[in-house]
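Input/output pair, single chain:
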Amino acid sequence: MNSGSATLMLVVAGLFAMRPGLTAETTAPATEPGETWEITSSMEMAGMSMAPHTQQVCQPLAGDQPAVPQPDDKSCEMYDVQRSGSSMSWKMRCTGKDAMTGSGELSYQGRDSYQGKMTMNMEGQTVITRLSGKRLGAQCDAGAIKKQIAAVEKQTAATLAQQCREAARSMQVMMFDGRYPTACDAKTKAEFCKRVGTEQGYDLLAARGQAPGTSNPELESAGKTCGVDIAATRKQLCKAGVGKDASLPFLARHCPDEAAPIAQAQCAGRSFTSQPEQKYREFCSDYARHNLMQGGAGATGGQPDASGQPAPQEQTPAGNAVEEGKKALRKLLPF
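Output:
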């Protein structure tokens, strides 16, 4: 049995986890009277099986669904419940990331026990869940269980909302590009996409990617997710940052064309006795570090020629890249 099939069984088991029963308190009447059933389920798929699992569930007395594991996910629903004599059948469907369809059937032995099965189809594979149940007779409060479930769902939604807000603030694209199992809401995604077009947002995304000058999967994913041209966004930010002291670190890290003349004028050839102006120190450090990560090419070559255009840079052999980078740091770092 391959690992994909085993994972599928776990997905089905997770979506149809049996909700625990709750014994009614004797000091107060049940808000929605129910009765406790003990249900045993076992799953099998293509010759592989999981160990049987037994749990108690609280079945509303007035409920129209069978006392079986219920979908514990809002994307799942049971429908078309049919009864005929001692038999019961239903259909089931789940949408979204773990989309699946299926059906179930039960055969009651009197009022106090049953045998049955559920069949779920997902990704061209079938998972069968064997069921057996017996009535324990204990009273329980189905209304209280529904309130507990609603409270858990509310807390889960609040936690997700907080995670999404933090993801938009810290530019965690995986919360918006489909890699995370639960999607963030459209409003928070819009906030994230808006920040992609800012120096701070772009900088945070770039910091999670590859070294400067190489393909950056985080930036690329953000561009696809938000429908923006990342290369054009960078150029726009670089152009807007020229002449702004607050933008100097961004220029040093992401804008080689705009940063090179500033570095030549403010960083190159400085020493401990002739340090850059205070406002250029972070710029010089970032610019030198950027070129070290690039292998040093940008720091030692490409100086403007007589026409003011960057001169062609020599290609540095891969074996000398780190040494050239060190030379670049010694030239550009005054501290």
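Confidence is low (pLDDT under 50) at residues 1-7, 14-28, 296-322, 328-335. The chain has three domains: 3-149, 171-240, 242-305+316-335.
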